[in-house]
Amino acid sequence: MTLWIARKPLVLASKSPSRRRVLENAGISVDIHPADIDERAVEAAAGPSGPGEAAQLLARAKALAVSAALPGRLVLGADQTLALGQKRFSKPAGRAGAQAQLQELSGHAHELHSAFALARDGAILFEHCSVARLTMRSLSAAAIEHYLDAAGEAVSLSVGAYQIEGVGIQLFERIEGDYFTILGMPLLPLLDWLRRNGFIAA
Prior knowledge:
The protein is 36% helix and 25% strand. The chain is α/β, with parallel strands linked by helices and 202 residues long. Strands 1, 2, 3, 4, 5, 6 and 7 form a seven-stranded mixed β-sheet that branches.
C-alpha cells in the first residue's frame, strides 16, 4: 500500500536495500537511481569536516548528481558516517576488515550521523542530519568470530560491520537515538516535509 500521491515516485539516489525498505514500508513509491560519485574526492574538495558535516555533504552531492540527470524529479540522497571519537570509519573490506572494526568498537560508544538531502532540478529543497549513539558490549575474540559466522557477507554492507535490524543487535548493550537514524534514513523529518509539500497524503 502506498500513501504517495505525487505523479512520479520519489527517486532514491542509493542502492541501499535498507533505505529502500524503510521508504517503501512507510508507503512511499520509490525509483532507484544510485548516484555515481567519488565520495572521497567530494570530501577532499570540501576540506576537513566533522562526521555530521561529511554525511550531509555526501547526501547533498548524491542528490544533486542524480537530480542533474533526471530533470523535474524529486531526488533523495542519503549518507551515514560512523565516528569513534575523532576517528571516522568506512565500510569494512571483507571479513578481516569487519573483524578489525569490531575489535576497535568493542566496549566503546560510537556515533552514527545519518543525513539526507532532497533535490530537484539542481537545487537542494530540504536537508537534515540526525545522530544516534550506540554502545557496543565488550566482545571477546571468540564472540566476534561467532558473530561474523552468523552475519555472513552482510558484514561488508554497512559501516561498523553490523545491521541492528538483524543479528547485529547482539553486539550492543545500549542504544540512544532514533531507530531510523541508525538504519541510515531519518524518516520522521523526511515524512513531515513530504506531507507539507503535497507528496504524500496528510
